[in-house]
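Case study: bis(5'-nucleosyl)-tetraphosphatase (symmetrical).
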Amino acid sequence: MGFRHQFVIGDIQGCYADLQALLKQIGFDEQQDKLWFVGDIVARGEDSLSALRLVKRLCQAGAAEMVLGNHDINLIAVWRGVIKIKKKDRTQAIFDAPDCDELLNWLRRQPLLVYPNDKTVMVHAGIPPNWSITQAAMHASELQTQLQSSLWQLDRLLPHLYSDTAVPWSNMLTGYARMRAICNYFTRMRLCQMDGTLEFSFKSSLDDKMPEGFRPWFEWQVPRERKILFGHWAALKAKVDLANARATDAGCVWGGSMMAYRLEDEQVICQTCKAK
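Here is what the predicted structure looks like once written out:
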């Protein structure tokens, strides 16, 4: 099916009113257009429940697709009793909702990597310089299989996805260490070394001092056959637009903007968000 317009939408973070305003601004028609949500549907905004319900409905109607972000996986982990809700997250309404299990069972079956068109690939945080896009798709499939498996298997997996120990990638990694590394690349990465070693503490802008030997994953010069569309890094304010990468998180939940990136002509439309 051909679409009139396709838009990549940056991190929503539960900012439902701002999402509604952005969709109105771009003239979104779910009968003619398609949305690509870059992850972090929920967390710190005023209405994560409504945001998640809307994204689920649009995806099931064929009017949207999404990838999982770190806050989405955290939500799944809270649901399964692996971690507690973070103090700043405003997601309790999801767990109190009558459709909680339906929403979270649907969410855990969403992908980590998708192809919005023949020129782009979309992930939440990025693709490290030591992976080709083909390799990234294979690794995404590995973790997706685990997340989408039985609840028993999911409950075994989730506790092992949380660690700030930076382990260099190796094809020899196995088991939960391998799943954790894959999850970190797709949902948490900002800075890394050329071999893919991650640094988890830096969340600032490109003007700030970075740990020695690390740089933003997209600044390593690696030939890419597709442009990587990503969110996650709010401090970039969605201003990074390179030949190989395009940032889409304009920091809505921090009082910035929510961004729509129109695929056919690369036009950017921003909805100025209310201070949170």
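For the exam, be able to explain this: The chain has a mean pLDDT of 96.
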